[in-house]
Amino acid sequence: MQYQKTKEILNQAVADLSQLQMVVRQQHWYMRGPEFLNLHPYLDDVMAELDDQRDLIAERLITIDGSPYSSLAEMVDYSTIEAHPGKWGTPTTERFATIVDGYHHLAHLYEKGIKAADEEGDYSSSDILTTCHNDLEKRIWMMAAEINQAPNIDE
């Protein structure tokens, strides 16, 4: 079988993207207060970006003869991102810090995937993950700035 390590990491990304999207959705649904009108639609964009990445990565996995996780049970079983059930009254700084942590987790996974894909000669998967990684880093920077933190993408 070709690209075995790459397939494993791509599938992990599918599960983790699904979980992070749900984490963002919880923050999105349980938001109130003076920042609501600006941040609620912003989090819609964040969820759409995560969904686009998940679809792109799952389709790449299928292209290289892999089988992406596709059920809720699989996403729960295989995701390595912690669930964060929504609750009312959570400060925006805490909400965004939770999301930024998830983005950092994905960025590190993508870095492993880029390395594995390069080592296995799957340059298309490497390119896809590199593009997605760049998008993650920009989102980390923007969300960290919103809560007056440095992006810390070099850690």
Summarize the SSE layout with pairings.
Blueprint (H helix, E strand, L loop, with lengths): L3 H26 L6 H28 L8 H7 L13 H29 L2 H24 L9
Helix pairs in contact: 1-2, 1-3, 1-4, 2-5, 4-5
Pfam families: Ferritin (PF00210)
InterPro entries: DPS_DNA-bd, DPS_DNA-bd_CS, Ferritin-like, Ferritin-like_SF, Ferritin_DPS_dom
GO molecular function: ferric iron binding; oxidoreductase activity, acting on metal ions
Folded structure, characterized:
The protein has 155 residues and is mainly alpha-helical. The protein has a single domain (4-146), classed as Ferritin (Up-down Bundle). It is built from 5 helices and no strands. The protein has helices at 4-29, 36-63, 72-78, 92-120, 123-146. The longest helix is centred in the C-terminal third of the chain and has 29 residues, at 92-120.
Fill in the CATH topology.
Ferritin
| Overall pLDDT | 96
Query: What form results from the Cα inertia axes?
Result: globular
Q: Which structural class do the helices and strands define? A: mainly alpha
Total DSSP helices: 5
Largest sheet: none
Low-confidence stretches: none
What features would you highlight for this structure?
globular, DNA starvation/stationary phase protection protein, Ferritin, Ferritin_DPS_dom, mainly alpha, single chain, 155 residues
Put the structure in a nutshell.
The chain is mainly α and 155 residues long. Helices cover 74% and strands 0% of the residues. The protein has one domain (4-146): Ferritin, core subunit, four-helix bundle (Ferritin, Up-down Bundle).
